[in-house]
Amino acid sequence: MSAPAGLSMNNYCPRYNRQTITGRYNAMKHTLQTAGKFLLLYGLTLLLLWGILFLSARIPNDSIATNMHKSAIYYQKLDPFQLHNGEKLNAIGDNYADAIVLNLAWHMGNGNPLISVLDTQYYDGGAFGEHAGLYLSVTEDASPNADYTRYWHGNAAFVRMMHLFTDIGGMKTIGFVVALLLVALTMFILIKGKHTDLALLLVISLIAVQFWNIRLSLEYQPVFVLTFALCPAYLLAERRGNGMLPLLSILGGTAVAFFDFLTTETLTILVPLLLVVAVRGKENRLAGVKESLSLLGGCAACWCAAYGATFLVKWAVASLVTGNNAFALATTSAVERIGGIAGTTPNGSTFFPAITANLTVLFGGTARLQPARALLGTALCIVLLFSIWYLFRAKQPQKTAALLLLLLGAVVPVRFLLLNNHSYYHEFFTYRALLAPILATLLALRLNLQQHKRKAKK
Questions:
Q1: Are strands 92-94 and 121-122 parallel, antiparallel or unpaired?
Q2: Which residues pair with 94 in a beta bridge?
Q3: For residue 279, what pLDDT is reported?
Q4: Which own/partner pairs from 14-19 qualify as long-range (CB within 8 Å, at least 24 positions apart)?
Q5: How far apart are CA 259 and CA 224, in angstroms?
Q6: Could you tell me which residues come within 8 angstroms of residue 141 by beta carbon, excluding any fewer than 6 positions away?
Q7: Burial letters for 333-362: b for 16+ Cβ neighbours within 10 Å, e otherwise?
């Protein structure tokens, strides 16, 4: 069929327009290249992390035995959950979790390291408990009897490496110092960019969640170390556009799934993005709502995909290595953390105690649920912040920035609701995830207050 006189085929039949076909081809090619780049980065990141864990497992147990023995004795003298500030739950040291990760790390040194880092097991000590299990594993080479394959336990790599020259006390101190240095680096970048106010709000947010108490437990530290290792990278990368932000989100999602055990994992994506939005908003570089939501949604999707895939890879490879269905064990654990067993939370399986419990700990609670404390503390904060806004509000509010910041902050209570059983029973450490909504609220407030401009020097 030929086109009518005076018309080209391109004009007569748009679906055959060469420009349209070329445009679609280029768009598809770009999408495939981007997906390939993301997959390559994810694969290399996970392979590198697994390689570190594998190499640590090759360290002979004899080389770390002396310091592991010191650590085992240290835990023998402590309660599984140790209070450090009266009865306040925000100052609990999770010795139970630390003893398990040391136990796992010790047993990774037995047998083929290719298998031991995937088929993660420990000796639970029977009726004597996990602390005795660690001691008997180190001193009498007790055989593991408890499966713990649902996590990667990446922290065990550093347990083995650092026990070459120190014990658990030294390791916790080093981890806390590293976290402090990374927070200082993040603040330095903000201050250098003339955002001292944002750096100050970050400090206030850290104080609100008693940041210094991460020194009490080894298992509290990886998320904060990762978060503040990523913050400088995000702040530097965002100056060059949006291209690097999804890649950093993949790194964060992979690493936190590898090192963390569901403590405050969302901080690794929320805090860096909150700072990026705040800096762009303050410098009037923030895009419109649609474009900004697309960027944040893309970063969140990359983080979630990497986070979920890292768990799936562990379960798949562990199933192949052990011959057991690691997926079944992990699914059972996940169901328990989402809903739990009826009757294990007040009024049966209800969602709201998880949020109340975390707010109770935030405001210095001494029991898991103190609704009056949580309500009063929240109400006072709202009244104070509203008063500041009312008295000093800007004539031209940054509604887009505030919306984006508050949406990011809202992720944490949603997480509490989704993993309600876990968030309820582990509120003494999950509450630190409230760093994100606290920071989001303070940043949104700051961007909508009057900003005094410096007078130009003559």
A1: unpaired
A2: 81
A3: 97
A4: none
A5: 11
A6: none
A7: eeeebeebeeeebeeeeeeebbbbbbbbbb
* C-alpha count within 13 angstroms, C-beta hemisphere, residue 417: 6
Contact 5, 12 (CB under 8 A): no
Average pLDDT of the residues of the chain: 90
Is residue 194 a contact partner of residue 210, using CB atoms and an 8 Å limit? no
Digit-coded pLDDT (tens) for 104-153? 999 999 999 999 999 999 999 999 999 999 999 999 999 999 999 989 99
Measured distance between the N- and C-terminal CA atoms of the chain, rounded to whole angstroms? 76
Q: For residue 153, give every residue at least 6 positions away whose Cβ sits within 8 Å of its Cβ, in sequence order, or none.
A: 53, 101, 104, 105, 120, 261
- As a three-state string, the secondary structure of the chain is CCCCCCCCHHHHCHHHCHHHHHHHHHHHHHHHHHHHHHHHHHHHHHHHHHHHHHHHHCCCHHHHHHHHHHHHHHHHCCCCEEECCCCCHHHEEEHHHHHHHHHHHHHHCCCCHHHHCCCCEECCCHHHCHHHHHHHHHHHCCCCCEECCCCCCCHHHHHHHHCCCCCHHHHHHHHHHHHHHHHHHHHHHHHHCCCHHHHHHHHHHHHHCCHHHHHHCHHHHHHHHHHHHHHHHHHHHHHHCCCHHHHHHHHHHHHHHHHCCCCCCCHHHHHHHHHHHHHHHHCCCCCCHHHHHHHHHHHHHHHHHHHHHHHHHHHHHHHHHHCCCHHHHHHHHHHHHHCCCCCCCCCCCCCCHHHHHHHHHHCCCCCCCCHHHHHHHHHHHHHHHHHHHHHHECCCCCHHHHHHHHHHHCHHHHHHHHCHHHHHHCHHHHHHHHHHHHHHHHHHHHHCECCCCCCCCC
- With a CB cutoff of 8 Å and minimum separation 6, the contacts of 71 are 102, 134, 163, 167, 168, 169
Say what the pTM is: 0.90
- pLDDT top residue among 436 and 28: 436
Per-residue pLDDT reduced to its tens digit, 405-429:
999 999 999 999 999 999 999 999 9
